[in-house]
C-alpha cells in the first residue's frame, strides 16, 4: 500500500517487523513488516494530495439523498438544501450508505455489523514475561472474554506507546459469548483492568477512534452513473479487519471505471459502470466468499480451540500460511480436526446453505 499509493513516511507512527497472534494461553509470531499510521495525519495527506491534483472539498457537509431527474442520477443533496452535480456520483459514505440505500444498491445487514474502538496509550509493558514480546509488532488476540465474536489488538507505536483496541461483530457468536450489559467500551475497560501489560498504562488522547463496518458479501456495487466504494459495499478484509488498503483499492477501481466511461466509451449506463464490479472482485477482494467463511468459522470456535490453532500455526511454513490467508481449500483443511465438523454444521445451519460444495 505504502508504495503503490505513494504514502509518505511522515504519516507513519511506527514501522513494525512482525505480527503476533494471541489466544488466551498461546501465541504465534510471524515476521511480517508493516506500518502503523497516524490516521489524522494520513487523512490530511489525502486531502492535500487531492487538492494538488485538482479535487475540491466541502467540509461539514452531510449527504442527504441523490438528485434524480427524469430517472437519471445527476447529483447529490447535502445538509439542508445544498446541491452538487456531476456525470458520475461515487458513494464513499461508509456503513451508513445513504445514497446506495436510496438507489437500492446497498443491502447491509445489522447482524453482520462490526464495531470497534481504539485508544493510544503510553506506559504499555510490551515485553511482559507472561506474553510474547510485542516490541516492533502488531498483535491480534482471539479471546471471547475481551472481544466476543471478534478480536483485540496492541500495535506498537514507538517507545512504550501503543494503539490498543477491540472489535467484534454483533452476530450470533457475539450474543452467545457476550455479557449483555457490557458495551464495546466496557469490554475494552475489562481488558485494560485485567491484562498486566496495562498496569501502568496511561491514555494519551482523550477521545477514542471509533469505527464500524459490515462484514458480509456485497450485492451490486454500481448502477447508472453511480459507484459505491469502501465500506459502503463492505470492502473490509473479513479475516484481519484490514480496511484502509482495501478501501483505497476500491477507490482506484472506481477511478479506472470512471475514466473509461468518461473518456473512452462516453457512456455511464449501468452496463458500462459494471466494469467496477468486475474490478472489485478481481483486484480488491478476490476469494471474498472463502475469506468470509473462514471468518465465520473462526468466530464459531471457543477459546480452547484458539489455543490449539496457535500451536498448529507454529508448525506450518510461511508459504502454507500465505495460502491459508488466500483462502486455499487444501491448506485450510490441514487446520481442521474431526471435532471441528460441529462448527461446520453450525455454520451450515446459520447460513442455510450447503457447505459440502466448498470442500468438494
Automatic annotation (TrEMBL):
Residues 136-194 form the Digeranylgeranylglycerophospholipid reductase catalytic domain. Pfam families: GGR_cat. The lineage of its organism: Archaea, Methanobacteriati, Methanobacteriota, Stenosarchaea group, Halobacteria. GO terms for biological process: phospholipid biosynthetic process. This is Digeranylgeranylglycerophospholipid reductase. GO terms for molecular function: oxidoreductase activity. Keywords: FAD, Flavoprotein, Lipid biosynthesis, Lipid metabolism, Oxidoreductase, Phospholipid biosynthesis, Phospholipid metabolism. InterPro entries: FAD/NAD-bd_sf, Geranylgeranyl_reductase, GGR_cat.
Amino acid at each position: 500500500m505504502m508504495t503503490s499509493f505513494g504514502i509518505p513516511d511522515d504519516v507513519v507512527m511506527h514501522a513494525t517487523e512482525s505480527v503476533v497472534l494471541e489466544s488466551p494461553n498461546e501465541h504465534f509470531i510471524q515476521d511480517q513488516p508493516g506500518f502503523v499510521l497516524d490516521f489524522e495525519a494520513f487523512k490530511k495527506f489525502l486531502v492535500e494530495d487531492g487538492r494538488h491534483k485538482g479535487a475540491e472539498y466541502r467540509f461539514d457537509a452531510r449527504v442527504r439523498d441523490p438528485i434524480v431527474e427524469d430517472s437519471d442520477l445527476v447529483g447529490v443533496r447535502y445538509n439542508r438544501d445544498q446541491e452538487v452535480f456531476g456525470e458520475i456520483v461515487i458513494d464513499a459514505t461508509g456503513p451508513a450508505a445513504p445514497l446506495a440505500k436510496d438507489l437500492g444498491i446497498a443491502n447491509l445487514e445489522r447482524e453482520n455489523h462490526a464495531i470497534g474502538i481504539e485508544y493510544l496509550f503510553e506506559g504499555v509493558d510490551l515485553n511482559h514475561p507472561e506474553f510474547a514480546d510485542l516490541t516492533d509488532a502488531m498483535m491480534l488476540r482471539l479471546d471471547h472474554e475481551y472481544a466476543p465474536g471478534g478480536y483485540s489488538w496492541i500495535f506498537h507505536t514507538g517507545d512504550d506507546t501503543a494503539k490498543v483496541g477491540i472489535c467484534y461483530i454483533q452476530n450470533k457468536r457475539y450474543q452467545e459469548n457476550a455479557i449483555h450489559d457490557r458495551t464495546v467500551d466496557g469490554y475494552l475497560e475489562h481488558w485494560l483492568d485485567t491484562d498486566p501489560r496495562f498496569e501502568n498504562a496511561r491514555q494519551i488522547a482523550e477521545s477514542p477512534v471509533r469505527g464500524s463496518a459490515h462484514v458480509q458479501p456485497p450485492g451490486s456495487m454500481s448502477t447508472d452513473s453511480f459507484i459505491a466504494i469502501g465500506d459502503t459495499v463492505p470492502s473490509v478484509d473479513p479475516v484481519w479487519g484490514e480496511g484502509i488498503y482495501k478501501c483505497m483499492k476500491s477507490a482506484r477501481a472506481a477511478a479506472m471505471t470512471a475514466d473509461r466511461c468518461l473518456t473512452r466509451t462516453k457512456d455511464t449506463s449501468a452496463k458500462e459502470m459494471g466494469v467496477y464490479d468486475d474490478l472489485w472482485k478481481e483486484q480488491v477482494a478476490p476469494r471474498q466468499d472463502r475469506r468470509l467463511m473462514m471468518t465465520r468459522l473462526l468466530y464459531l470456535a471457543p477459546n480452547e480451540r484458539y489455543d490449539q490453532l496457535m500451536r498448529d500455526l507454529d508448525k506450518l511454513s510461511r508459504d502454507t500460511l500465505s495460502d491459508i490467508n488466500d483462502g486455499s481449500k487444501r491448506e485450510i483443511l490441514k487446520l481442521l480436526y474431526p471435532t471441528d465438523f460441529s462448527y461446520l454444521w453450525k455454520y451450515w445451519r446459520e447460513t442455510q446453505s450447503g457447505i459440502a460444495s466448498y470442500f468438494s
